[in-house]
Amino acid sequence: MIGKEAKSTCSYCGVGCGVVIKKNARNRIEVEGDKEHPVNKGMLCSKGMNLHYVVNDTSDRILYPEMRWSRSHPRERVSWDDAMNRAAGVFKSIIKKHGPDSVGFYVSGQCLTEEYYIANKLTKGFLGTNNIDTNSRLCMSSAVVGYKKTFGEDSVPGSYDDIELADCFLIAGANPAWCHPILFRRIEKHKEENPNVKIIVADPRKTDSANFADLHLQLLPGTDVILYNAIGRQLLKKGFIDKNFIRNHTEGFKEFREKVMELSLNQSSKLCGVPAAEIKKAATLIGRSKGFISMWAMGLNQSVIGSDKNFSLLNLSLVTGQVGKPGCGPFSLTGQPNAMGGREVGGMANLLAVHKDLFNEEHRKEVAQFWGVNEISPKPGYTATEMFDALEEGKLKAIWIICTNPMVSLPNVRKAEKALKKAKFVVVQDISHKSDTVDFADLVLPAAGWLEKDGTMTNSERRISYLEKHIHPPGEARADVEILCDFAQRMGFRGFNYNNTEEIYREYTQMTRGTNIDISHLSYDRLKNEGSFQWPVPEYRHAGTPRLFQDRKFYTPSEKAIFNIPASTINTSAKPDSEYPLILTTGRIRDQWHTMTRTGKVARLKTHYPDPILEINLVDAYLNNIKNGDVTEVKSASGTVRLRAKVTENVREGVVFMPMHWGKQLHNDLNRANNLTSDLVDPLSKEPDFKYTTVSVQKY
Ligand code: SF4
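Structure for Molybdopterin-dependent oxidoreductase, as requested:
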């Protein structure tokens, strides 16, 4: 419990800022930035510095289990015993009748690593199905494919400390000024102190990040591969390549060269909407730099060609030899605080823990042996969107949703709503009644939130932090691991009788021994006493690993990094036509987080954007007779939203933008961006196409 002051890590984004928590004279929590923390050095963004409001205001919290015996009855308060017996009873009977693949878990990048580990062990090891996926599927799965295919494993090569050593940044499909603010502050400060540092932003919108950049490549949505291949072509043409690195440490260069030479600079320029001179300038800035870092987020990942976009960007680091050295490397910007930790313990339907491969029989045997079970099913589980499709088709009967709000965040959300209504049994384990998904639950389980439980998280730079329990959860809320272990034991499974979270962590770390993410020598004691560490930490007293691949040996069979050739160069999931002539992209705003169940409670965070708006270009507004502030009706093949227009030059002609945060509970369902998006996904990563929906816009 909090004495004079205590430390923790911000529970919002993957930057992973350190916070200091205090209690004031009125026994209320106060939060400030941790000046000693290596990531943020005392800084916090608007979301982080208002975390205490979220903790102190418990008015929306789910305080006790609630259950309904049938869909025609309201939910009523029940004891934990009744709730857990019912959960176990229903799961047992569904599995007996329909087999293990008829149940599934949908979890979250906000779960702590121990929670993720237990949910995976329970599902893959004991329930006998790989039907466990996470909202990270909506966020980082294309980057995972990119890393695995390029470096052999899902491994972020660099560190935030490489920022201050780099002299050229390509920020692609990301707006870190709003979405990863403390990281962006470090880039800004570095540039202010070193004016020779160059920043390139590739984004269809003029964001705050783009406004700060030396060069804004305002590409057409869906043409990222064309742009990065054109930059690659120019790098080759001007000789800005690292021949030694390519020859000795990569495979596939010939195919890369052939691919990028397919289109002339002018052809590419025409297709991606970026002037040839700007492409040349970008290539020159990258080619002449001593330290080149590419950073990317949802603009690349959330696409039917998200994996291809990742390949084309990663290829730029390979062709310039800018990986495995100080001040360089590709750097994916993780959205959620523990998406990385979740990936480490295999928290997706097609992954196994410690980067082992579900499709590798030996790996499945190793994991099964470690957990003391007969086998792990070789059949990949349903991914996030597949899970809801399977519910609708009646293949999946029961779903357990933990710490995520799919009724706002899933694409084509009305279809997902129908799917959840068709489910035989829905469990929602969450902290807040403000989650729209709670409305669909047959069983609601109150979970502990930030500061109310302990465990670890991994941020975007592979940095593992221990988060201590500082306060008691309200009402009867329990830590997620406790709930899951309780359920596992009621199902009759052995191996879930832990005395504390540390025992779970220790079990997981033993699993990492000898792997590329070895943290078998990183104990809770070290995390508590010495602070956070970047994996791997393979030996006793090891100080952690800020940078991977310094020996230029990668995790592929040949130990070489691979140039991957994008199968598609342009997003063709939809084509603007006379019915839906504009392209909608969705994304975040500065002061809100995900579906607003936490940030939506803080009055001062609503002042920036009190309501959702539609950004529309001056020309498109004029052609549709729309003025600033008019209520517009936006339609796509999936649905409709109504919201006010913000007429702006920040989006290019033919493109509109809408924030993704608002849901039904906090507003009305006509403000929900995912009424409009389609449920198409990338064939490799299964990540949805949030950044490319054709729509019409009219004055309402
Ligand atoms: Fe929290 Fe991210 Fe803001 Fe840091 S940048 S304070 S981790 S939301």
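DSSP finds 24 helices and 26 strands in the chain.
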